[in-house]
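Continuing the series of single-chain predictions for the mutant panel. This is the parent chain; the variants come on the following pages.
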Amino acid sequence: MATALVEELTTHAADHLSRKAGTRVNIEPEIHTAAGVVRGRWENDVAVFRGIPFAEPPVGAHRFGAPVPVRPWDGIRDALRFGPPVPQGAHTGSVMSSVSGNVDDGSADCLTLNVWSPDLGAARLPVIVWIQGGTYLENNSANPHQNGATLARAGVVLVSMNYRVGVDGFAHITGAPDNRGILDQIAALRWVQDNIGAFGGVPDNVTVFGQSAGAACIAALLVMPLAAGLFRRAIVQGMPGTYFAQRLAAAISTTIAAQLGVRATVGELAGIPPRALTDATDVVIEKMPEFVESWGPMALTPTPFSPVVDGDVLTCAPWRALADGAARDIDLLVGHTRDEYRLYTSRPGNEPTEARVRTTFDHLAPGTDGNELYRIAYPDTTPARRYEILNSDWLFRMPSLHLADATHIGGGSVWLYELGWSFNSEQGASHALDFLLVFGTLGPDEIRSHRSAHPNAANEITRVSHRMRTDWVTFATTGDPGWSRYDPHTRSTRVYNAEPTTQRYPEERSRRIWSTHRFDILDLLHTD
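Parent structure:
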């Protein structure tokens, strides 16, 4: 993907003039940041800077602490490769087995970000900061499906980041601040405020956008005092509606630590290498359904982690704060895919048993007889299909819809969308498809090779992807994506099918079932 580098940058002004004149320039652009000079490269008319550190390595004394600003460096730092991923199950760096963090492969230096810019001059472009998902367990900005080049060519400066996940990022640990992964995101957003002007962006027009766990983090950022003033707009895609009380988070952390014979304290976990913690987490994930009577609905989700409402960094669940007027000055675009949970049920071996269906309806559905509510609302579906719809509603769709309602009640400007287009019959419009379309990294060739692709899907994807990306960039630029604002009376929704339409919210049957439910903090059902 990278072009050959044949000459060095002399001045940014000369580079800007050359490109404005239509001359292809193969150079290594150098940018002065607050911590030092970084050197990137031009790749197909987009300047790319990879692996820029925004905080000190989260190891040793910094491991379970709030992020510490990166120390300045002398000389020029190459920003040509993505930084190593943060500690997680698939990470193979030697820091995964280190207690001190003193490793010789650089894998400890993982809190980095990346910048794609179409113009390093004085273009004053809108800035979009991507916060990826991954069930609070995975995080790697080197994922090729998160390549920011196509979005940058649409007229924005795109920033992505690594942030801590798993026990290191989201577990409740005595002696450590909660929500360390979100604190990392805040540190990256502060870096953007301090430095993005040199990359062609304008710090006064920053939009954060994210999907899944990243979207739920953004919903939290909307109401966090520490994040005030760091962004102007937000795009929330397929947010899971799980936010934990400290008591629930502590019970989960205690269970994970017990797998290793220690307590969930900074003093005892500091002696445990990251790989041991990810292994212990995997053991608990497998056993989570066994804890449903005490841990409640979260035990039926794919992850033991979520943002913690600690009364300090995050003072309450986002729906309540938004309805009270928090973030009323931040424009919000929020939505979901039509078939969110099918990503999970379509995997081989994930078909729900009768017992699992019964347990899920007992713990997730609203009211005293949620199974009957769904049977009446969806009379022509099988129990397994209603199980999928319920999980889509409880975990993703209704939290997103209620976030729009809360924002409107609090006086904010909000727009709603649903992705209904899909390219195959197995997964439908499933979780994560929307971000692939916005990034433009899922192409026609991949569609054609899928065993159950729709006949015309390869021709449709370019058009649907372009339409969504254009609307996202328009929103980031102007604060209006191009359709009517959402309100609880008209429920105006942009629905992306092969041809987009604006209509009333299409999931009316589920909306009615959940109309009186109030999403809030999840807590222990009882203690042993």
